[in-house]
Amino acid sequence: MAGKKQFDMDKVLDAAMIQFWCDGYADTSLDDLSRATGLNRSSIYSSLGDKDKLFLRCLDLYAARYGEKYDAALSCAASEPVAAVRAFFDVTLERIADPELPDGCLIAQSAMAIPVLSPSVAAHAKQALGLQCQRLRTALKAAQLTDQNAEAFALHVAAVNQSLAVMSRAGASQAQLLAIVGVSVDALSQVLHA
Predict the structure, then answer these.
(1) Taking every pair of C-alpha atoms in the chain, what is the biggest distance, in angstroms?
(2) Whole-angstrom distance, CA of residue 70 vs CA of residue 93
(3) SS3 state at 152
(4) Model confidence, pTM
(5) Rounded distance between C-alpha atoms, residue 165 and residue 167, angstroms
(6) pLDDT score for 7
(7) Cα 38 to Cα 149: distance, rounded to the nearest angstrom
(8) Residue 65, by phi and psi: left (phi above 0), alpha (psi -120 to 50) or beta?
(9) Number of other residues whose CB lies within 10 A of the CB of residue 69
């Protein structure tokens, strides 16, 4: 159509997601989003909504993209729970090691920013974090852990997973991150073999 700009929505959302991931919600301005996406402010508003709506779309994109990878990693939990949890952590470690991606984790960053987020965005960030715990809880229950142990390890693994993102952003080496993962995997192995 004449006079109407066309753009690739997937590329625009990816660019916006990376911008939020790099700088966080609070420190990302509409001007930053305009530079990152190549869209002017009015195009952002008309095509993507306000900053909150765009952030929610980016958070959903991030959660879906990595959620699929986490689900695949945990798919063998019923028969090989230790390998599944290690594979779960590997998804995070591979993301952290990817030089094309920002350090850290958009969900961890969002959870830490909850005090400055609007109530709807804060609830969405909590929901994204909760989905990770639920994914782990379901996998660990399939591995025949008791409800109490499945709940405890789901919370532990989710917390360690988020801390990997924080630690990587603070400069932890890959070897240090692997050592953190090793402690969690060893603890799960001991409980399973007790």
Answers:
(1) 70
(2) 12
(3) helix
(4) 0.88
(5) 6
(6) 78
(7) 48
(8) alpha
(9) 16
Cα(142)–Cα(178) distance, integer angstroms: 25
Q: How far apart are CA 122 and CA 88, in angstroms?
A: 25
Rounded alpha-carbon distances, angstroms, from residue 90 to 29, 40, 41, 93: 33, 38, 38, 5
pLDDT digits (tens, 9 = 90+) for 3-55: 455 778 899 999 999 999 999 999 999 999 999 999 988 889 888 899 999 99
Pair of tokens at residue 109: 């960053």
Per the structure block, which two tokens stand in for 21?
């991931």
pLDDT at 4: 53
138-189 tens-digit pLDDT: 999 999 899 999 999 999 999 999 999 999 989 999 999 999 999 999 999 9
The torsion angle over the Cα atoms of residues 153, 159, 160 and 166, rounded to 10 degrees, is 170
Calculate the dihedral angle through the C-alpha atoms of 92, 95, 97, 100, rounding to the nearest 10 degrees: -170
Residue 6 corresponds to which tokens in the numbers above? 């066309």
